[in-house]
Specification:
Elements (H helix, E strand, L loop, with lengths): L8 H10 L7 H12 L3 H17 L1 E2 L6 E2 L13 E8 L2 H10 L4 E5 L17 H9 L5 E4 L5 H14 L5 E4 L15 H9 L2 E2 H5 L2
Parallel strand pairs: 3-4, 3-5, 5-6
Antiparallel strand pairs: 1-2, 6-7
Helix pairs in contact: 1-2, 4-7
Length: about 210
């Protein structure tokens, strides 16, 4: 849609911002903006305030890097969670996916990315040092690697294994025999839950 077809510069600016969101084209952005214009002012104010509050007030858990309303997330502070079982994931979306399975009762560590030399992302660019420090404390007895089955995921898995193999901790990975796809967030809950339950020692994969 050309610039001159917009009847309002304010409308155009709003469409520009919405179209910057992932998966939102300009036609969808226009539909969303026009929908907002039809809503009561109080509803729009609540919508805008929720976005501002999210951006300005949301915190990162000091233990696991998950997002939280406080400095410690509800998973890390839950006394019923197994603190000796640590699941390593790439992103916050992966935490949500695994939580939805109901098959995991440990805690998490969010790396915030994967090692990808092609993209110039090395171990220092993600939270691996913090992970190793956490495991070094001696509380964690098992590290579950739940990264995507991609070259970047496998590279990161192997690097973490090398950095922790001297520590008194068992390193496992979610079952690869279960087809959960390349990205955890797209796996169905039953399949992903089965992959978590049927995890295997990472070291056994290296000998295959």
């Amino acid at each position: 849609m050309s610039t001159h077809s917009y009847p309002s510069k304010l409308l155009e600016n709003a469409v520009d911002q919405f179209s910057r969101l992932p998966g939102i084209g300009r036609k969808t952005a226009l539909r969303l903006v026009l929908h907002i214009l039809r809503q009561p002012g109080t509803d729009v104010d609540r919508f805008a305030q929720s976005v501002l509050s999210l951006r300005n007030e949301v915190k990162t858990c000091k233990h696991c890097n998950n997002i939280s309303d406080t400095e410690e997330c509800y998973i890390c502070t839950n006394p019923r969670r197994n603190q000796s079982l640590l699941c390593v994931v790439e992103s916050i979306r992966d935490v949500m996916s695994i939580e939805n399975t109901g098959q995991y009762n440990g805690v998490y560590y969010v790396l915030g990315g994967l090692i990808s030399p092609m993209d110039g992302i090395g171990p220092a660019d993600i939270n691996i040092e913090g992970l190793v420090n956490k495991v070094s404390l001696g509380i964690v007895k098992e590290v579950v690697l739940a990264l995507s089955a991609t070259m970047e995921g496998d590279t990161t898995n192997f690097y973490i294994f090398k950095k922790t193999k001297h520590l008194p901790v068992e390193v496992t990975t979610i079952a690869r025999g279960v087809a959960f796809g390349n990205e955890l967030e797209y796996a169905d809950e039953i399949t992903l839950g089965r992959a978590i339950v049927n995890r295997v020692r990472f070291e056994t994969l290296l000998s295959n």
